[in-house]
Amino acid sequence: MQKPHWLALIALFAGASAVASSPLFVRWSEAGPTPAAFWRASLALPALWLWALLHRSRIAQAANPPRIGLLRKSVALAGFFFAGDLIFWHGAIMHTSVANATFLATCAPIFVIPAVWLIFKARTGAVFLVGMLCALIGVALLVGPNLRTRASALTGDLMGLVTAMFFASYLLAVTRARAYLTTAQIMAWSTSVTALCILPVALISGEAFFPHSAHGWWVLVGLAMLPQVVGQSLIAYALRHLPATFSSVGLLLEPVVAALLAWLLLREAMSARQLAGAAAVLAGIYLAHRGSRGQTGHAV
């Protein structure tokens, strides 16, 4: 297997692990969930723009104005979709369990695969589909004991599902732009759009906008640096070399890591069935990877 492919796999899984820490930061945040989403994007901007300015490069294969315009739209849409992802996901985290919110938010494969088939006419093989199903069943086993039936939890579950729709759209937009733009360019511009989209929602949400202590600010800085700058940048890099279909399944590692972190730090215990579910997720990701060989990220 080529070195860039291995690096992309490592980046994808490391990015998923970094993003998995975000529910913990949101739970610890002194700001409300929607303002926390705004601070996640806005506090990440200095580091992302510094990175983009220090690594300037030409836009490969994008010399003609129509293509440049299409790329700008793709990056703007990526920022908009990620804003929706953060708004609904951070809300879900506050209304249901960490594992449950993360599972529903990472059900993006359910929406990515039909979109790829309808829009790009790209088909997936049987091995890939079996792997995806195995991974989804594994995550269902993982979060099963944490399912709740009270109204607020059901609201959180619905918000998690809407998050998946936004994240699926985000993956497709980044995959398209990543074929021509650098990771730094995509992250700086799309995160700027994300912050601008979330700001008015955060201001009218009625939630606490500012943290009330230095510790609260450090929590928000951690939310911006680890899940956003590190996690999402690694995922954006991986999407240059991996198809969006497989990436959406590979990111199902995220609820596994989130459940482990919740077990270690939030005392949300894991049962033997949940551990079996985690193993099924890993097996499903392996099968999905085998079934997606030969595809590239920019091929979707």
How big a fraction of the residues is strand? under 5%
Instruction: Extract low-pLDDT stretches.
Output: 296-300
Helix content: over 70%
Overall body shape: globular
Q: Count up the helices.
A: 14
How are helices and strands ordered from N to C?
HHHHHHHHHHHHHH
* Overall pLDDT score: 82
Number of domains: 1
Distance between the termini: 19 Å
Based on secondary structure, the structural category is mainly alpha
**What can be said about the biggest beta sheet?**
none
The total of beta strands comes to 0
- CA radius of gyration is 18 Å
Structure in words:
By secondary structure, this protein is mainly alpha-helical. It has one domain. Helix content is 75%, strand content 0%. It has helices spanning 3-19, 22-28, 33-42, 45-54, 65-93, 98-105, 109-120, 126-143, 151-178, 183-204, 214-238, 244-250, 253-265, 272-291. Helix 3 (33-42) packs antiparallel against helix 10. It is globular, with a radius of gyration of 18 Å. Mean pLDDT is 82; it is low at 296-300.
